[in-house]
Design brief:
The chain is α+β, with helices and mostly antiparallel strands. It is built from six helices and eight strands; from the N terminus they run E-H-E-E-H-E-H-H-E-E-H-H-E-E.
Length: 225
């Protein structure tokens, strides 16, 4: 079962969680809409029920302590999207737009290294619905805070071990706040990507098999009562 965490947060939070699904747009490391995502449906983020409710608890804690909120770039991810990524990494065809996306997202490596280096996984936790990619926003402006690197910047600077010298003091503090509050509600970080958190780890999965349900507008607003 998957629910719309954005809609749920409208009920449970004083300020709702925001969503901008990057893989439903061309503004991602591939440069096109990814299989399994309805084009331009960016305001829908799906999670399994326990993970969704815990993320709302994270949102409330951030609001109360820091006046920050969450901006989701990806949550549940259909299995077909992972297969799309895998197929793309094996293609030799490169156009100018792809080169531009490479410069923005993986400038120092080749796309055929993304799975090997751990930036992508064939058994992605995202497909189980308890994993989310997100950053902090200032709820007064609705703007993303400085996190030291863009989402899906596949480089060592995106590691959770990056220092304030490497990414700047403001970004370092923002990453620490995000990590500390997410950890408090059992969202486990991934060392290679500061934006990636898995609720309960593999043991926190509420389903036993990866899901391949397409993300469409029909799912918007679905919430368990």
């Amino acid at each position: 079962m998957l629910i719309d965490v954005v809609k749920l947060s409208e009920k449970l939070c004083s300020f709702p969680i925001k969503s901008e699904l990057k893989y439903a747009t061309t503004k991602n490391f591939v440069g096109r809409v990814i299989n399994g995502y309805e084009p331009d449906l960016t305001s829908l983020a799906l999670l399994t029920p326990k993970a969704a409710r815990k993320l709302c608890a994270v949102q409330n804690a951030l609001i109360q302590q820091y006046h920050f909120g969450l901006l989701i770039y990806d949550a549940y991810r259909p299995k077909r999207a992972v297969q799309d990524f895998l197929h793309w990494t094996k293609q030799d065809v490169v156009n100018q737009y792809e080169l531009e996306r490479k410069e923005k997202h993986y400038p120092r490596i080749h796309k055929n290294q993304l799975f090997k280096l751990g930036y992508l996984s064939e058994d992605s936790n995202h497909c189980y619905g308890n994993t989310v990619d997100l950053v902090l926003i200032d709820i007064a402006t609705n703007k993303a805070l400085d996190m030291g690197a863009r989402f899906d910047y596949m480089d060592t600077i995106s590691r959770t071990t990056a220092t304030s010298h490497e990414i700047g003091e403001h970004a370092f503090q923002h990453r620490k706040i995000l990590s500390d509050v997410m950890n408090k509600f059992d969202f486990q970080p991934y060392i290679e990507e500061f934006w990636h958190f898995c609720h309960g780890g593999m043991k926190g999965r509420e389903v036993s098999e990866p899901m391949d349900i397409e993300i469409t507008s029909l799912m918007k607003g679905i919430v368990l009562e």
